[in-house]
Amino acid sequence: MEPETILYRKKNQVAVIRLNRPKVLNAMNRQLWIDLNTALADAQEDDTVRAVIVTGEGRAFSTGADLKDAKDRSLQDYRIYLEHLQETSLQIIRFEKPLIAAINGYALGSGYELALACDIRIAAKDAKIGFPEAKVTSSVTGGAFRLLPDLVGPGKAAELLFTAQYVDGAEAARVGLVNDAVEADQLMESAMQMAEQVAQNAPFAIKMIKKGLRMAQGEASLAAIMDFEVEGCLACVSTKERQASLDQFAARKE
User: Fold this and answer.
1) Closest CA to 148 of 178, 125, 106
2) What are the CA-CA distances from residue 143 to residues 146, 155, 157, 166 (Å)?
3) Over the stretch 211-227, which tens digit does the pLDDT of each residue have?
């Protein structure tokens, strides 16, 4: 049966996962995380799949967490949601096959954090990438406190998180947020070329290289960082400012 919130196809040893909630710019709700996890499990178990591309349907990669889901969520429900999100993100980070994010349009908050969890990121030059959490009284998840500084350095990471400003794909490539930026109409072709080039190599060698890269990044403490991210988010969403931010967001959408 076709998943509810993603499109999943396989071609030339490459699986393509499209986040498929285009009417809400692929905002990420619980069902999307479940469907994404299911597709990744299928790709992992399929020996014919040697690389995976993750992208978004329509005008966005993903605008991040679906704040409509969050508006009336209790703190305990929020903890359960965040812990499930972290477990899924850790599975993506530890996924044994190469993951390539093809970033089209907006990639914000946990949407870009999904791209961060991938091994390689290619963006459209006109993509908009950023972390709006500070504007809505929240905090980052998905291992971003480790993964973002690893890409751009601690100073640039602090600037991106503190200002909550967006950068386009070309600037993202310049500062190291993505590996490359291409014209929007060339994005999927470029991602597929990269995936097919990777797929030509020995799967076991790629598996070992991925494991080695994770070890070199100090993954032993990544789980502790992600536990802290849960506590940081819960502390933020417990404030009066958080509810005010959600009310302002809801008013803009009406």
Assistant:
1) 178
2) 6, 17, 13, 20
3) 888 877 776 577 777 78
Name the CATH architecture for the domain at 6-187.
Answer: Alpha-Beta Complex (3.90)
- What does the pLDDT look like over 110-123, one tens digit per residue? 999 999 999 999 99
pLDDT in tens, 24-78: 999 998 899 999 999 999 999 999 999 999 999 999 999 998 877 776 778 898 8
Tell me how far apart the alpha carbons of residues 29 and 157 are, in angstroms, rounded to a whole number: 26
The DSSP secondary-structure symbol of 184 reads G
Identify the weakest region by mean pLDDT among 85-89, 140-144, 174-178. Answer: 85-89
Strand pairing category for 120-124 and 99-103: parallel
Q: What is the average pLDDT score of the chain? A: 91
Distance (Å, whole) CA 81 – CA 125: 33
Answer left, alpha or beta for residue 142, where phi above 0 means left and psi between -120 and 50 means alpha.
left
Q: Stretch 17-26: mean pLDDT, rounded? A: 96
Active-site amino acid positions:
113, 133
CA pair distance 98, 196, nearest whole angstrom:
11
Name the residue type at position 14. V
Q: Domain limits of the chain? A: 6-187
Locus of tokens 């990544």: 222
Report yes or no on whether pTM surpasses 0.85. yes
The torsion angles phi and psi of 120, rounded to 5 degrees, stand at -135, 140
Name the residue among 193, 184, 210 with its Cα closest to residue 119.
210
Report how far residue 27's alpha carbon sits from residue 68's, in angstroms, rounded to the nearest whole number: 10
Question: Tokens 């963006």 label which residue?
Answer: 123
